[in-house]
Amino acid sequence: MHEVSVVTSLVDAVIAELQKYNVIKVNSVTVVIGDLTNLGEEQMSFAYEIVTQGTILEGSEFIVEHEPIELECWDCGYKGPANVLTDPDFDTHSIPILACPECGGKVTVTSGQSCMVKCMDIEEAD
Predict the structure, then answer these.
(1) What is the pLDDT of residues 29-55, one digit of tens each?
(2) What is the DSSP annotation of 41-83?
(3) How far apart are CA 41 and CA 57, in angstroms?
């Protein structure tokens, strides 16, 4: 379950950032997860609950915002949402095949690969 290692890295980064401030409580942490990361929201939430035990983040809400897949076509210049095509064995290895929804050409992924902390709701001491 790679969600645990990802969440652990996110939590470590958040705690390091919070040490710069006089934080007494963290209400929530919002992360942006791209649809191409193949990270499960439910698994990440569970991992967050476990990994944050005994830290300043314990009891805080873990909010996940999804980042949709967006593409730019090499051939026709299309820019926009993906048309994710898959092979018949998609369930066994979950590798999407991306193509331009307009012309079927090769594309560059411009959105959908993020995994980052967007913001935190914290309370600081007076």
Answers:
(1) 999 999 888 899 999 999 999 999 999
(2) HHHHHHHHHHHTTTSTTTT-EEEEEEE--EEEESSS--EEE-E
(3) 18
